[in-house]
Amino acid sequence: SKMQFPWVSVSYLRSREGLGNGLVVTVSSCAFSGDVGHVQITGGAGFVGSHLTDKLMMDGHEVTVVDNFFTGRKRNVEHWIGHENFELINHDVVEPLYIEVDQIYHLASPASPPNYMYNPIKTLKTNTIGTLNMLGLAKRVGARLLLASTSEVYGDPEVHPQSEDYWGHVNPIGPRACYDEGKRVAETMCYAYMKQEGVEVRVARIFNTFGPRMHMNDGRVVSNFILQALQGEPLTVYGSGSQTRAFQYVSDLVNGLVALMNSNVSSPVNLGNPEEHTILEFAQLIKNLVGSGSEIQFLSEAQDDPQKRKPDIRKAKMMLAWEPVVPLEEGLNKAIHYFRKELEYQANNQYIPKPKPARIKKGRTRHN
Protein backbone atom coordinates (compact mmCIF):
# COMPACT_ATOMS: atom_id res chain seq x y z
CA SER A 1 0.00 0.00 0.00
CA LYS A 2 1.20 3.53 -0.74
CA MET A 3 0.68 6.76 1.13
CA GLN A 4 0.07 9.64 -1.27
CA PHE A 5 1.12 13.19 -0.43
CA PRO A 6 0.14 16.13 -2.62
CA TRP A 7 3.72 17.31 -2.88
CA VAL A 8 5.62 14.09 -3.67
CA SER A 9 5.42 10.59 -5.07
CA VAL A 10 7.91 8.06 -3.69
CA SER A 11 8.54 4.32 -4.06
CA TYR A 12 8.60 2.63 -0.68
CA LEU A 13 10.67 -0.32 0.49
CA ARG A 14 9.30 -1.25 3.91
CA SER A 15 6.04 -0.69 5.72
CA ARG A 16 4.67 -0.04 9.17
CA GLU A 17 0.99 -0.86 9.32
CA GLY A 18 -1.96 -0.58 11.64
CA LEU A 19 -1.66 3.03 12.73
CA GLY A 20 -4.35 4.18 15.11
CA ASN A 21 -5.80 6.75 12.73
CA GLY A 22 -6.76 4.07 10.24
CA LEU A 23 -4.04 5.04 7.74
CA VAL A 24 -1.60 2.45 6.45
CA VAL A 25 1.64 4.40 6.16
CA THR A 26 4.66 3.06 4.30
CA VAL A 27 8.03 4.53 5.14
CA SER A 28 10.87 4.94 2.69
CA SER A 29 14.39 3.60 3.10
CA CYS A 30 15.39 4.69 -0.39
CA ALA A 31 18.31 6.91 -1.30
CA PHE A 32 17.79 10.66 -1.57
CA SER A 33 19.56 13.17 -3.77
CA GLY A 34 20.84 16.62 -2.87
CA ASP A 35 22.42 18.06 0.27
CA VAL A 36 21.02 16.59 3.47
CA GLY A 37 20.72 19.15 6.25
CA HIS A 38 19.73 18.64 9.89
CA VAL A 39 16.37 20.27 10.60
CA GLN A 40 14.67 20.68 13.96
CA ILE A 41 10.89 21.15 14.20
CA THR A 42 9.49 22.27 17.53
CA GLY A 43 5.85 21.21 17.75
CA GLY A 44 6.67 18.66 15.06
CA ALA A 45 4.09 16.14 16.29
CA GLY A 46 1.27 18.67 15.90
CA PHE A 47 -1.11 19.19 13.00
CA VAL A 48 1.08 21.38 10.77
CA GLY A 49 4.38 20.16 12.24
CA SER A 50 3.73 16.52 11.35
CA HIS A 51 2.94 17.37 7.71
CA LEU A 52 6.13 19.47 7.59
CA THR A 53 8.00 16.48 9.05
CA ASP A 54 6.66 14.27 6.24
CA LYS A 55 7.82 16.68 3.55
CA LEU A 56 11.29 17.26 5.00
CA MET A 57 11.85 13.54 5.58
CA MET A 58 10.81 12.81 1.99
CA ASP A 59 13.15 15.54 0.79
CA GLY A 60 16.01 13.64 2.48
CA HIS A 61 16.74 15.81 5.51
CA GLU A 62 17.69 14.61 8.95
CA VAL A 63 14.71 15.68 11.06
CA THR A 64 14.54 16.04 14.82
CA VAL A 65 11.01 16.55 16.13
CA VAL A 66 10.79 18.29 19.51
CA ASP A 67 7.38 18.14 21.18
CA ASN A 68 5.98 18.02 24.72
CA PHE A 69 2.67 16.54 23.46
CA PHE A 70 0.55 19.27 25.04
CA THR A 71 -1.48 19.30 21.82
CA GLY A 72 0.78 17.22 19.54
CA ARG A 73 0.30 13.46 19.16
CA LYS A 74 2.82 10.67 18.71
CA ARG A 75 0.44 9.04 16.23
CA ASN A 76 1.08 11.92 13.81
CA VAL A 77 4.75 11.00 13.33
CA GLU A 78 5.03 7.39 14.47
CA HIS A 79 5.37 6.15 10.88
CA TRP A 80 8.89 7.66 10.84
CA ILE A 81 10.08 6.04 14.07
CA GLY A 82 12.94 3.68 13.21
CA HIS A 83 14.03 5.63 10.13
CA GLU A 84 17.73 6.50 10.34
CA ASN A 85 17.11 10.19 9.52
CA PHE A 86 14.41 10.69 12.16
CA GLU A 87 14.58 11.49 15.87
CA LEU A 88 11.75 12.29 18.29
CA ILE A 89 12.51 14.16 21.53
CA ASN A 90 9.92 14.64 24.26
CA HIS A 91 10.92 18.11 25.42
CA ASP A 92 9.28 21.38 26.43
CA VAL A 93 10.83 24.40 24.69
CA VAL A 94 10.34 26.43 27.87
CA GLU A 95 13.48 24.56 28.98
CA PRO A 96 16.74 25.13 27.04
CA LEU A 97 17.75 22.55 24.42
CA TYR A 98 21.30 21.74 23.33
CA ILE A 99 21.47 20.13 19.89
CA GLU A 100 23.37 20.70 16.62
CA VAL A 101 21.03 21.75 13.77
CA ASP A 102 21.14 23.79 10.56
CA GLN A 103 17.53 24.99 10.50
CA ILE A 104 14.86 25.41 13.19
CA TYR A 105 11.17 25.51 12.37
CA HIS A 106 9.69 26.92 15.58
CA LEU A 107 6.06 25.78 15.50
CA ALA A 108 5.63 24.96 19.20
CA SER A 109 2.51 26.62 20.64
CA PRO A 110 -1.13 25.76 21.25
CA ALA A 111 -2.89 27.24 18.21
CA SER A 112 -6.64 26.76 18.68
CA PRO A 113 -8.71 28.96 21.01
CA PRO A 114 -9.84 26.19 23.42
CA ASN A 115 -6.24 25.07 23.87
CA TYR A 116 -4.60 28.44 24.34
CA MET A 117 -7.46 29.87 26.43
CA TYR A 118 -7.49 26.79 28.69
CA ASN A 119 -3.90 27.46 29.77
CA PRO A 120 -3.04 31.06 28.87
CA ILE A 121 0.06 31.18 31.07
CA LYS A 122 1.52 28.09 29.40
CA THR A 123 0.73 29.63 26.00
CA LEU A 124 2.57 32.83 26.97
CA LYS A 125 5.57 30.91 28.33
CA THR A 126 5.83 28.80 25.17
CA ASN A 127 5.73 31.86 22.90
CA THR A 128 8.10 33.99 25.00
CA ILE A 129 10.55 31.82 26.99
CA GLY A 130 10.28 29.05 24.38
CA THR A 131 11.04 31.44 21.53
CA LEU A 132 13.98 32.96 23.48
CA ASN A 133 15.38 29.46 24.03
CA MET A 134 15.10 28.56 20.34
CA LEU A 135 16.68 31.87 19.29
CA GLY A 136 19.46 31.20 21.80
CA LEU A 137 19.98 27.78 20.22
CA ALA A 138 20.04 29.32 16.73
CA LYS A 139 22.64 31.83 17.89
CA ARG A 140 24.87 29.16 19.49
CA VAL A 141 24.93 26.79 16.51
CA GLY A 142 24.56 29.32 13.67
CA ALA A 143 21.17 27.95 12.58
CA ARG A 144 18.44 29.78 10.69
CA LEU A 145 15.12 30.00 12.58
CA LEU A 146 11.66 30.22 11.07
CA LEU A 147 8.95 31.43 13.46
CA ALA A 148 5.44 30.16 12.82
CA SER A 149 3.62 33.39 13.60
CA THR A 150 -0.07 33.93 12.93
CA SER A 151 -2.67 36.12 11.30
CA GLU A 152 -3.84 36.75 14.89
CA VAL A 153 -1.08 39.37 15.17
CA TYR A 154 -3.50 41.53 13.13
CA GLY A 155 -6.25 41.02 15.75
CA ASP A 156 -9.70 42.13 14.62
CA PRO A 157 -8.37 44.05 11.62
CA GLU A 158 -9.54 47.49 10.54
CA VAL A 159 -7.72 47.02 7.21
CA HIS A 160 -8.92 44.49 4.63
CA PRO A 161 -7.23 42.44 3.27
CA GLN A 162 -4.31 42.34 5.71
CA SER A 163 -0.84 43.02 4.31
CA GLU A 164 2.44 42.57 6.19
CA ASP A 165 2.89 46.29 6.81
CA TYR A 166 -0.38 46.50 8.84
CA TRP A 167 0.38 46.78 12.56
CA GLY A 168 -2.84 45.19 13.76
CA HIS A 169 -5.79 45.90 16.07
CA VAL A 170 -5.34 43.65 19.11
CA ASN A 171 -6.98 43.68 22.54
CA PRO A 172 -4.00 43.15 24.90
CA ILE A 173 -6.20 41.93 27.79
CA GLY A 174 -8.88 39.98 25.88
CA PRO A 175 -9.42 36.21 25.97
CA ARG A 176 -7.20 35.70 22.89
CA ALA A 177 -4.43 37.98 24.12
CA CYS A 178 -2.18 35.20 25.46
CA TYR A 179 -1.83 33.89 21.90
CA ASP A 180 -2.07 37.15 19.91
CA GLU A 181 0.38 39.08 22.08
CA GLY A 182 2.55 36.00 22.62
CA LYS A 183 3.10 35.74 18.87
CA ARG A 184 3.57 39.50 18.49
CA VAL A 185 6.35 39.56 21.09
CA ALA A 186 7.85 36.38 19.54
CA GLU A 187 8.20 38.33 16.29
CA THR A 188 9.82 41.20 18.22
CA MET A 189 12.30 38.76 19.76
CA CYS A 190 13.23 37.37 16.34
CA TYR A 191 14.12 40.78 14.99
CA ALA A 192 15.96 41.75 18.19
CA TYR A 193 18.15 38.65 17.81
CA MET A 194 18.64 39.37 14.12
CA LYS A 195 19.69 42.98 14.75
CA GLN A 196 21.79 42.43 17.88
CA GLU A 197 23.21 38.92 17.39
CA GLY A 198 23.06 38.43 13.60
CA VAL A 199 20.73 35.41 13.82
CA GLU A 200 19.06 34.56 10.50
CA VAL A 201 15.28 34.63 11.00
CA ARG A 202 12.19 34.02 8.87
CA VAL A 203 8.68 34.91 10.02
CA ALA A 204 5.57 33.27 8.53
CA ARG A 205 2.21 34.82 9.41
CA ILE A 206 -0.03 31.80 8.99
CA PHE A 207 -3.71 32.22 8.17
CA ASN A 208 -6.47 29.63 8.78
CA THR A 209 -5.30 26.16 7.76
CA PHE A 210 -7.09 22.81 7.72
CA GLY A 211 -6.55 19.18 6.74
CA PRO A 212 -5.95 15.70 8.15
CA ARG A 213 -4.51 15.46 11.69
CA MET A 214 -6.41 18.49 12.95
CA HIS A 215 -7.74 17.94 16.45
CA MET A 216 -11.40 17.13 16.06
CA ASN A 217 -12.53 19.04 19.14
CA ASP A 218 -10.20 22.01 18.78
CA GLY A 219 -13.08 24.48 18.54
CA ARG A 220 -12.15 25.76 15.07
CA VAL A 221 -14.69 26.38 12.34
CA VAL A 222 -13.85 23.61 9.87
CA SER A 223 -13.28 20.83 12.42
CA ASN A 224 -16.40 21.79 14.40
CA PHE A 225 -18.61 21.79 11.30
CA ILE A 226 -17.24 18.51 9.93
CA LEU A 227 -17.59 16.74 13.26
CA GLN A 228 -21.11 18.07 13.82
CA ALA A 229 -22.21 17.14 10.29
CA LEU A 230 -20.77 13.62 10.54
CA GLN A 231 -22.51 13.05 13.88
CA GLY A 232 -25.85 14.50 12.70
CA GLU A 233 -25.71 17.33 15.23
CA PRO A 234 -26.64 20.99 14.58
CA LEU A 235 -23.86 23.05 12.98
CA THR A 236 -23.24 25.84 15.48
CA VAL A 237 -22.63 29.29 13.98
CA TYR A 238 -21.57 32.05 16.40
CA GLY A 239 -23.22 35.38 15.62
CA SER A 240 -24.87 35.94 12.25
CA GLY A 241 -22.36 33.83 10.31
CA SER A 242 -21.39 36.84 8.21
CA GLN A 243 -17.83 36.79 9.60
CA THR A 244 -15.38 35.85 6.85
CA ARG A 245 -12.50 33.37 6.85
CA ALA A 246 -10.05 32.24 4.20
CA PHE A 247 -8.79 28.66 4.56
CA GLN A 248 -5.73 27.01 3.01
CA TYR A 249 -5.06 23.28 2.81
CA VAL A 250 -2.16 22.08 4.95
CA SER A 251 0.07 20.94 2.05
CA ASP A 252 -0.05 24.45 0.58
CA LEU A 253 1.09 25.90 3.91
CA VAL A 254 3.92 23.36 4.26
CA ASN A 255 5.23 24.23 0.79
CA GLY A 256 5.09 27.92 1.73
CA LEU A 257 7.02 27.36 4.98
CA VAL A 258 9.79 25.47 3.20
CA ALA A 259 9.98 28.10 0.43
CA LEU A 260 10.23 30.87 3.03
CA MET A 261 12.87 29.08 5.12
CA ASN A 262 15.07 28.62 2.05
CA SER A 263 14.54 32.16 0.70
CA ASN A 264 16.38 35.40 1.43
CA VAL A 265 13.24 37.10 2.79
CA SER A 266 13.81 38.05 6.43
CA SER A 267 10.74 40.28 6.88
CA PRO A 268 7.30 38.76 7.76
CA VAL A 269 5.38 36.98 5.00
CA ASN A 270 1.67 36.11 4.95
CA LEU A 271 0.89 32.49 4.08
CA GLY A 272 -2.80 31.96 3.49
CA ASN A 273 -5.55 31.57 0.94
CA PRO A 274 -7.08 34.88 -0.23
CA GLU A 275 -10.30 33.12 -1.29
CA GLU A 276 -12.75 34.49 1.28
CA HIS A 277 -15.97 32.84 2.47
CA THR A 278 -18.47 33.60 5.22
CA ILE A 279 -18.81 31.22 8.16
CA LEU A 280 -22.37 30.48 7.02
CA GLU A 281 -21.10 29.51 3.54
CA PHE A 282 -18.61 27.10 5.16
CA ALA A 283 -21.40 25.54 7.22
CA GLN A 284 -23.58 24.97 4.15
CA LEU A 285 -20.70 23.68 2.01
CA ILE A 286 -19.51 21.17 4.63
CA LYS A 287 -23.08 20.04 5.28
CA ASN A 288 -23.52 19.33 1.55
CA LEU A 289 -20.14 17.56 1.15
CA VAL A 290 -20.87 15.30 4.12
CA GLY A 291 -24.44 14.70 2.91
CA SER A 292 -25.73 15.57 6.36
CA GLY A 293 -29.27 16.49 7.37
CA SER A 294 -27.99 18.62 10.25
CA GLU A 295 -29.61 21.98 10.92
CA ILE A 296 -27.63 25.22 11.26
CA GLN A 297 -27.95 26.66 14.75
CA PHE A 298 -27.09 30.29 15.56
CA LEU A 299 -25.49 31.07 18.93
CA SER A 300 -24.36 34.31 20.55
CA GLU A 301 -21.21 35.86 19.13
CA ALA A 302 -17.82 35.00 20.67
CA GLN A 303 -15.81 37.81 22.29
CA ASP A 304 -13.07 39.40 20.15
CA ASP A 305 -13.98 37.14 17.21
CA PRO A 306 -12.44 38.81 14.12
CA GLN A 307 -15.15 39.89 11.66
CA LYS A 308 -12.92 39.71 8.60
CA ARG A 309 -9.85 37.66 7.90
CA LYS A 310 -8.21 37.60 4.47
CA PRO A 311 -4.52 37.63 3.60
CA ASP A 312 -2.83 39.86 1.10
CA ILE A 313 -0.33 37.36 -0.39
CA ARG A 314 1.24 39.56 -3.05
CA LYS A 315 4.57 39.44 -1.19
CA ALA A 316 4.61 35.61 -1.06
CA LYS A 317 3.68 35.43 -4.75
CA MET A 318 6.38 37.87 -5.79
CA MET A 319 9.24 36.88 -3.47
CA LEU A 320 8.60 33.14 -2.95
CA ALA A 321 6.69 32.30 -6.15
CA TRP A 322 4.15 30.71 -3.78
CA GLU A 323 0.37 30.63 -3.73
CA PRO A 324 -2.22 28.04 -2.64
CA VAL A 325 -3.13 25.48 -5.30
CA VAL A 326 -5.42 22.96 -3.57
CA PRO A 327 -9.11 23.77 -4.26
CA LEU A 328 -11.29 24.24 -1.16
CA GLU A 329 -13.67 21.34 -1.91
CA GLU A 330 -10.81 18.93 -2.62
CA GLY A 331 -9.17 19.81 0.69
CA LEU A 332 -12.45 19.57 2.59
CA ASN A 333 -13.15 16.12 1.15
CA LYS A 334 -9.74 14.92 2.37
CA ALA A 335 -10.41 16.37 5.83
CA ILE A 336 -13.88 14.79 5.95
CA HIS A 337 -12.41 11.40 4.99
CA TYR A 338 -9.83 11.71 7.79
CA PHE A 339 -12.49 12.69 10.35
CA ARG A 340 -14.65 9.71 9.39
CA LYS A 341 -11.68 7.41 10.08
CA GLU A 342 -10.97 9.19 13.36
CA LEU A 343 -14.57 8.77 14.51
CA GLU A 344 -14.38 5.05 13.73
CA TYR A 345 -11.14 4.79 15.70
CA GLN A 346 -12.55 6.75 18.66
CA ALA A 347 -15.75 4.66 18.63
CA ASN A 348 -13.70 1.48 18.79
CA ASN A 349 -11.93 2.97 21.80
CA GLN A 350 -15.25 3.90 23.43
CA TYR A 351 -14.67 7.63 23.20
CA ILE A 352 -16.54 10.07 20.95
CA PRO A 353 -15.16 13.63 21.05
CA LYS A 354 -17.57 16.55 21.09
CA PRO A 355 -16.79 20.06 19.86
CA LYS A 356 -16.63 22.29 22.89
CA PRO A 357 -16.01 25.96 23.62
CA ALA A 358 -12.92 27.12 25.46
CA ARG A 359 -12.78 26.37 29.15
CA ILE A 360 -11.74 29.25 31.36
CA LYS A 361 -10.03 28.30 34.61
CA LYS A 362 -11.66 29.84 37.65
CA GLY A 363 -9.48 32.17 39.68
CA ARG A 364 -8.54 31.09 43.18
CA THR A 365 -9.08 33.33 46.17
CA ARG A 366 -5.82 34.31 47.81
CA HIS A 367 -5.63 34.71 51.60
CA ASN A 368 -2.99 37.10 52.88
TrEMBL record:
Q: Which cofactor does it need?
A: NAD(+)
What is the E.C. number? 4.1.1.35
List locations, semicolon-separated. Golgi apparatus, Golgi stack membrane
Q: Name the residues that span the membrane.
A: none
Name the top EC class: lyase
Q: Which residue range or ranges hold the NAD(P)-binding domain?
A: 41-334
Q: Name one GO cellular component term.
A: Golgi cisterna membrane
Superkingdom field: Eukaryota
A biological process (GO) of this protein is: D-xylose metabolic process
What GO terms are given for molecular function? NAD+ binding; UDP-glucuronate decarboxylase activity
Keyword match Lyase: yes
Q: What topology does the record note for this protein and the membrane?
A: Single-pass type II membrane protein
- Please tell me whether the keyword Lyase is annotated for this protein: yes
Q: Name one Pfam family in it.
A: GDP_Man_Dehyd
Q: Which UniProt keywords apply?
A: Decarboxylase, Glycoprotein, Golgi apparatus, Lyase, Membrane, NAD, Signal-anchor, Transmembrane, Transmembrane helix
Reaction equations catalysed: UDP-alpha-D-glucuronate + H(+) = UDP-alpha-D-xylose + CO2
Part of which pathway?
Nucleotide-sugar biosynthesis; UDP-alpha-D-xylose biosynthesis; UDP-alpha-D-xylose from UDP-alpha-D-glucuronate: step 1/1
* Subunit structure as annotated in this protein's UniProt entry: Homodimer and homotetramer. Interacts with AKT1.
**Function statement:** Catalyzes the NAD-dependent decarboxylation of UDP-glucuronic acid to UDP-xylose. Necessary for the biosynthesis of the core tetrasaccharide in glycosaminoglycan biosynthesis.
| Family to which the UniProt record says this protein belongs | Belongs to the NAD(P)-dependent epimerase/dehydratase family. UDP-glucuronic acid decarboxylase subfamily.
Protein name, UniProt field: UDP-glucuronic acid decarboxylase 1
Its source organism is: Ursus americanus (American black bear)
UniProt gene name: UXS1
